[in-house]
Fold SulA-family protein.
Amino acid sequence: MTTTLWLFIALQMTMGAFDTFYHHEGTERLAWRPGQSVELRLHGIRNLAYMLAFACLGWTIPKGGWAIALILLLAGELFITLWDFVEEDRTRHLPATERITHTLLTLNYGVILAMLIPRLLDWAGEPSAIMPVHYGMMSWFCAIAAFGVFVSGLRDLAAARRCPRLVPADPAPLAAALGHSKTVLVTGGTGFVGSRLVEALASAGHDVTVLARDRARAAPLLQAGPVRIITSLDAISPDTRIDAIVNLAGEPISNSPWTRAKRQRIVRSRMGMTQNVLRLIQRLHHRPEVLVSGSAIGIYGLRGDEKLDESDEGKPCFSRHVCLNWERAARRAEGLGVRTVYLRTGLVLDASGGMLARMLAPFEYGLGGRFGDGRHWMSWIHRDDLVRLIVHCLARPEINGPVNGTAPVPVTNRTFTAALGRALHRPAMLPVPAWPLRRLLSGFAEELLLNGQRVLPAVATRSGFSFRYPNLDVALAAITGGDKMILTDVPVRPLALKEG
C-alpha cells in the first residue's frame, strides 16, 4: 500500500463523512423523509460494505481467495453506488453541493480502484491467507472510519424500516373547519408551517394563492390542488376576491446565530411583508374578512415559571421587540375593517423542519440531552394542530386579537428531552452546558435554548378548539413513527391560568 493510495483512501473517507453529515443528516435529513426507504437501504448496505473494506485494508493483507472476495466486495459497492444514483434522481432533487460531492467521490473511487485492483490481483495469485499488518496512523484511521460507517449503516437500515410509518396524514381534514370553498392568500407558503397549511387548504378544495420568492421551490405545492403561485403581491389585481389572508413570511429566527445582520433581516422581513399585505388590502375592491398574522410567544419575554395567557404583558428582549412590532404593524388592518388575529406560535413540532428536526439525529445516535439545567419551559405544538388552529381562527368570526399557538400542556426542557429519548428508544443523558452556548450564541442561546415561556392556549380552548395532540408523548409518537395510536380530537377544558 503506497502513500499515494492511502492519501486517496483518506480523501474518500473524508468526503464520504462530509456527504453523510452535511447532506444526508443535515440539509436533506434522509432518515426522516417519507419515501426514501430504498435509498436508505442502499446506503446501509453500502456502509456495511465500506466497513469490511476499511477494516480489511487497514489491518490485513488479504491473499488468494480473500483478495478475490475483497475485489468482489468493491465491485458490489460500485454497483450499489450506481443504483443509488438512479434512486436519488427518481425520488428527490439533489442540491448542487451534493451532486458535486458525489461526482468527486466517484472520480476519487475510480482512482482508488485503478491503483488497488492490480495489487489485489497480485495477492490473489498467492495461497489464501489473511496476514495481519499495521500501517501506523492509517490503520487507526481505517478503524475509526470502519466503526463510523458501521454505526451509520445500521442506523440507515433501521430508518429504512421506519420510513413507511412516516407518511404524513391526509392534509384535507386539517382544513375541514373552514367549510365551503374560500379564496385564501398565504405568504410564507413554502415554509415549514405555511407549506402544510397550503396542502391542507388546497386538498380541501379551497383556492389558494401562495406568495413565494422562488417559484421553483413552490412548485411541489401545485400537487395539492388549486394553487396559484405569485412572486409579488403586485400580481394581484384590485378586483381579485380574497376571503382570507395568512401572513407567515419572515426570515427564520432559529436557523443561525443572531448577528447584527441577522437581527436586521428578522425585523425587516416581517415588517416589510406585513406592510406589503396592508397595501394590498387597501387597494382590493373586496377586502378580506380576516387576516391571520404571524407572531410568537417570544412576545412575553423571559418569564420563568409564570403561567401566561393572551392577556399577559411581556418583558423586554429581542424576541419581544420583533413580535411587538410585527403585531403593531398588522394592527392597521383592523382600521381597514379586517378582523385580525395575531398568532403567537410556540415551538412547532414535526420531523420535516423546525428545532425538532435538528434534534432528531443527535438524539437518535444517543447523543442528546437537556440544555443547561433543563428547567426552562418549552411551549410546543404539533404542526398539524397549528394548521388546524389557523383554520379555526379563519373560520370563527368571534376570534380576534392574540391567540397562543401552543398545546395545553407545556413542559420543561428536561421533560421534553426525556420524552424525545423515549420516543426514539435512546438515552438522553448528555446535557449541553449553558456556558458554551451563552459564549458562542449569546442572545440566541439565552432566549431560544436556555430560557422559555410557560404559555397556555386560553383563547383557543375557550373558543372550542380541540387538540389532536394534546400531550407530548402522543405528539412525538406520531412524528417519529412510534406505536400506532387511534388519535381523535381531544377537547381540552379551559385552564386555570393563575395559581392561588
Notes: The radius of gyration is 26 Å. Residues 484-496 have pLDDT under 50 and may be disordered.
